[in-house]
Amino acid sequence: MSAYSENREHELNQPSTSEPLRIVIIGGEAAGMSAAAKARRVAKDATVMVFEQSDVISFGACGLPYYVGDFFSDAGEMSEFSPQQFATRGIDVRTRHQVTQINASNQVVHVHNLTTGEYFEQPYDRLLIATGTEPVIPPVPGLKEGLNNGRVFCVKTMKDGIYLKEAITSAEIRDVAIIGAGYIGLEMAEALERQGKNVRIIESASHPLAGTFDQEVAEWVMNTLNQEGIHCHWQESVESLTEDESHRLLLTTNKGQYQADLVVLCTGVRPNTRFVSDLGLEMLGNGAIVTDDQGRTNLPNIFSAGDCATVIHGQLEKPVWIPLATYANKMGRLVGEVMGGLDKHFPGAYGAACVKVLSLEAGRVGLSERDAKEQGIDYQTVVIKDKDHTNYYPGQSDILVKLVYETVSKKLLGGQIAGGRGAVLRVDALVAAIKGGLTTEDLGMMDFCYAPPFARTWDALNVAGNVAK
After folding, report:
1. DSSP states of 149-198
2. Looking at the chain, which terminus has fewer C-beta neighbours within 10 angstroms, N or C?
3. What is the C-alpha to C-alpha distance for residues 328 and 130, in angstroms, rounded to an integer?
4. Cα-flanking dihedrals φ and ψ of residue 351, to 5°?
5. Whose CA is closest to 100, among 152, 66, 53?
6. How far is Cα 315 from Cα 342, in angstroms, rounded to an integer?
7. What is the Cα–Cα distance from 421 to 356, expressed in whole angstroms?
8. Residue 428, C-beta contacts closer than 8 angstroms, at least 6 positions apart
């Protein structure tokens, strides 16, 4: 019997009690608040308490680049609900409360009230760890000093976004360097270019979105960045950050030196789980808490969800770390149901993700070519370049489709798409095709909508499926 099965037996066999179920949640962002809301609806007599270290809950960091880029002006729009709104639902949300320790044996959390300085203990019957991520700060001389003096910025919290947006309003901020070319780094490049800044990207990998997108799509991203005047440096690592004689920032890399007025650090995140590193939780190498398809950990009555935890991969059928808002919300909701007493199971993650890079959209789902190779799968790929709609309707643009599929069965394993406006929505069709176990032949004859403004009579996905051999 697995540790997870033992936990289920332990929880199912707990003696009944007249006391209401005590549900405690650590972390008040997407997963935590989704869980709180659902647990409250399912277990109507339970007490639901949320501890959040910051002073903001229900915050969506995905909006930060667009706030900085002035696509919208009210930072409050990134926080959907307030503690007061949750209080009306019978949920006790305590901001500026940091959980410093978990006593799993006694089922108690130790809490520090950051406003009053008080320390206290809170018992629980069900505990959810939903503490999200923290920024990865590379050990580069000068970076931490820059973070402390307001010349280097992370893009993680609402305060990060507010401070950065205030900083770039200065006419003295002309040249901005972005370290890292993942999703946030590329979105920040668009935001800062929109604000009239000269933008430079420095990335240690050979191409942007390394680890998530294959080279064919990455090349389209690189071409778009070059065409829009973004200075890009691939396979280049920052070695130090200093000031020059004019007090401008000077980034020294393994290939050169570059001046900047401000630096935005987009070097990734890691699970915010160091405070439970000695608890005995099963974790991946990066600190992500391993969970099953109900969000259960290997310790009784302790669950985890969101960017600090794994999800079960729908194809690989094992726990993987995919820190995306979609999974945080879905797993939070599901865990809330399970903690409340329902028997729900997550159907699996397929890694559907997308990004907008200036005029280009890019999306992906399922296994990349690198994933298939690492899994030892006998696979083939096909890459086609087509048009998004008919020649005679204005605004036609190029579209690229890459499919990864099993050699013998032709079963779809993954897909990636790049193109103009609306191109990324085709990824949703690939999600359904992969989840449904369809083949390239099925895709070639799949029924897609057609009208001149939207597609050709043979959609690009049909073409890709038919070209696959």
Report:
1. TTSEEE-SSHHHHHHHHHHHTSTT--EEEEE--SHHHHHHHHHHHHTT-E
2. N
3. 9
4. 70, 30
5. 53
6. 25
7. 9
8. 352
- The set of catalytic residues is 62
Say if CB 236 and CB 206 are below 8 A apart.
no
**269-271 and 133-135: which strand pairing?**
antiparallel
Residue environment code for 120-152, b if the CB has 16+ CB neighbours within 10 A, otherwise e: eebebbbbbbbbbbbbeeeebebbeebbeeebb
Q: Please provide residue 18's backbone torsions phi and psi, each rounded to the nearest 5 degrees.
A: -80, -10
Q: Beta strands 175-179 and 262-265: pairing type?
A: parallel
Cβ atoms 240, 252 nearer than 8 A? yes
Write down the pLDDT at residue 83.
80
Tell me the average pLDDT across 77-92: 84
In the block, residue with structure tokens 């409250």: 40
Please say whether the beta carbons of 188 and 264 come within 8 A: yes
Q: Which helix (H) or strand (E) holds 227?
A: helix 215-227
Q: If you compute the radius of gyration of the chain from its CA atoms, what whole number of angstroms results?
A: 24
Q: Tokens standing for 447?
A: 């029924």
Query: Model confidence over 400-442: pLDDT tens digits?
Result: 999 999 999 999 999 999 999 999 999 999 999 999 999 999 9
How many other β-carbons are positioned within 10 Å of the β-carbon of residue 201? 25
